[in-house]
Specification:
single chain; 251 residues; alpha/beta; Rossmann fold; four-stranded antiparallel sheet; 25% strand
């Protein structure tokens, strides 16, 4: 078995700022990799580069043997509708607010090639149940749902095509603690059931421990520590990782 996605020697500058500085990363089928670090560490930039949204100044990203940034726009869009999914921190960035809940889920199926209306509606109802939403509200628009419910709807929209790889950009950010806990439990269950590979970007060490098999710690655009989640969190070796972990323990 080979890596599902791998990148090496990634460099990216924004003016004088080194957003990515010689970053290498890989992910294997069924693996959850958490990317942790403070704001400005480069983790959001790395996620955008890995998902093909931003091209690096140097280095490459390969998925299933293809160079991601060499693909045409239509090919990347197709990839994002089928093999990949992307969960935004703000659910409104990943939903069409003027379209019903069921329509949001169904749109992704249609983009992947499904055309039978009954099958699309059945799949939307099934996925609303999977993410703990009432399928009777299928015709409600996302604005009628709470923030946590909108995030679960975005997850259903993302996963309905059963992608192989999902990029998650702080999916619990901005939610109440109790809502975060419920959402993390949902994500852990769905990732396990579907055998997804996922890059999980977070500043929350507890969330990384709950979901991730492996952790990458970023600072100033570099990966300063990498390893199995339990090892990194229980025996951090880089001073910055030690600081992150100790700040959680002291909270």
């Amino acid at each position: 078995m080979s890596a599902l996605l791998e990148a090496d020697a990634l460099h990216l500058r924004f003016g004088a700022v080194r957003a990515l500085d010689d970053v290498a990363v890989s992910i294997w089928p069924g693996e959850v990799v958490a990317i942790v670090g403070e704001s400005g560490s480069g983790k959001s930039t790395l996620l955008r580069v890995l998902s093909g949204q931003v091209a690096p100044d140097a280095g490459g990203v390969r998925y299933a043997g293809a160079e991601v940034h060499a693909l045409g726009e239509a090919q990347r869009r197709r990839l994002m509708c089928t093999d990949w999914g992307y969960v935004h921190q703000n659910a409104r960035d990943g939903l069409r607010m003027g379209v019903s809940a069921g329509g949001n889920i169904g749109e992704r199926l249609m983009a992947a090639g499904t055309r039978h209306y009954g099958a699309i509606r059945d799949a939307a109802a099934e996925w609303m149940v999977k993410v703990e939403l009432d399928p009777a509200r299928m015709d409600d628009r996302p604005g009628m749902f709470s923030g946590g419910m909108q995030q679960r709807l975005q997850i259903a929209r993302c996963l309905v095509t059963q992608p192989k790889l999902v990029f998650m950009d702080e999916p619990t950010g901005g939610l109440d603690v109790s809502v975060q806990a419920r959402l993390l439990d949902l994500l852990r269950r769905l990732v396990g059931e579907l055998g997804l590979a996922a890059f999980f970007l977070t500043h929350d060490i507890a969330a990384a421990r709950l979901l991730a098999h492996r952790i990458l710690v970023m600072r100033h655009g570099r990966v300063v520590e990498e390893g199995l989640a339990d090892r990194v969190l229980d025996d951090p070796r880089h001073p910055y990782t030690q600081l992150l972990v100790s700040s959680v323990l002291a909270a």
